[in-house]
Amino acid sequence: xxxxxxxxxxxxxxxxxxxxxxxxxxxxxxxxxxxxxxxxxxxxxxxxxxxxxxxxxxxxxxxxxxxxxxxxxxxxxxxxxxxxxxxxxxxxxxxxxxxxxxxxxxxxxxxxxxxxxxxxxxxxxxxxxxxxxxxxxxxxxxxxxxxxxxxxxxxxxxxxxxxxxxxxxxxxxxxxxxxxxxxxxxxxxxxxxxxxxxxxxxxxxxxxxxxxxxxxxxxxxxxxxxxxxxxxxxx
Length: 235
Description:
The chain is α+β, with helices and mostly antiparallel strands. It contains 8 helices and 6 strands, in the order ααααααβαββαβββ.
């Protein structure tokens, strides 16, 4: 028996649901208990994307009251506790594949629309911002502060391929790494960073070709004294 690839099955079912009508989706939603877990997830995503409202189901009849242990001999220790949501998630074989992971951060409405177009073409559901908006038109976060775009782990290979055509126009400029940190002044003899700035030379040396003053340093570790132009170079 051939085992279906969960990722491939999810994309195949998602594409099928995008092609059927709203009425057919709602009918399937009423029969979701008969669908596979992958199909249920794809169906829920498409219903959320179209913003369809499900009809409330008829509430089930209340269960009959259990017999009283004192009169029937019912042993409460034999009752099986209901599984907690945490334990159900732990036994779900697809919980890791459904986990949301960050795909990118968008910094403008135009970039967000570009990402939405690429992911929609690839058939990949996405969620923007802490409000988990399924479309740019419902995002309430400020794009100028950066809005995170997340997808399910299962769709990352296809999303990575789709994002190869993404050309952001409003990402903040990054400074070179060397501009973000200051290089320490080190002794030319023992390379210690424990140096003391003594001041600037008042007159340039006669053989110098320019009149720029020199910085006078003393190493507190070995006592070495030297002069330079005050520019530390990375070793």
